[in-house]
Amino acid sequence: MSRSPKSRNSARRTRPGMGRRERRAAETRVRLFRSALKLIAEHGLANVTVEDITEAADVGKGTFFNYFASKDHVLGVMAEIQLSKGREAAAKAAEGRQSIQMVLRHLVRGLAEEPGRSPRLARALISSFLASDSVRNILKRHMHEGRKTIGGIIAMGQKRGEIDPRLNKEKVALQFLQTVLGTVLLWSLHEKPALATWMGNSFEHFWRSVAAPRKK
């Protein structure tokens, strides 16, 4: 599955004002993540070793443990990337140039990019998050922050008359995340059609359930 320049940049982005050493460290960390993701998609998580990852990333094995406690922890970067997409969506919503419906639709597509590279990768990611307590805790922490971010977008939608103001924004944000995660899980089992199609259909159902009632 091809990835847009924007999605590639979001994964590689470094913070403004970072020094050269800090920037190189961030780039190495992302390179390890990308290499691990490619190997997991091809061979499955259980069949990938730290040595495989470092060789693919062209770094020493000792360097790997400067960034991650284990190969499972590499996947914590996935949660960081997804969270950054939520923040970008919130910034776009605040600009007011796009409807909240469009902002959330684009966010759904963005969140599907990484796991949508292959059903096998999606299954490997899900199993890794569920099997490791430490990775699961990282995911839960990022999801909590992501839920708050999405809740802010929902609140903007309610204020602008796009989303039903009677709904609890936190519950709607949770429903949004459940829609995304549930769709990824089901797609990983059925594999066809493409995840983007599944996500599009799921979003339409989600939006109909939260959209503000039409004025008569």
UniProtKB/TrEMBL annotation:
Span list, region Disordered: 1-26
Extent of Basic residues compositional bias: 1-15
Gene3D superfamilies linked: Tetracycline Repressor, domain 2
Keywords: DNA-binding, Transcription, Transcription regulation
InterPro entries registered for this protein in UniProt: DNA-bd_HTH_TetR-type_CS, Homeodomain-like_sf, HTH-type_TetR-like_transc_reg, HTH_TetR, Tet_transcr_reg_TetR-rel_C_sf, TetR_C
DNA-binding stretch(es), residue numbering of this chain: 49-68
Domain HTH tetR-type: 26-86
Molecular function in Gene Ontology: DNA-binding transcription factor activity; transcription cis-regulatory region binding
UniProt protein name: Transcriptional regulator
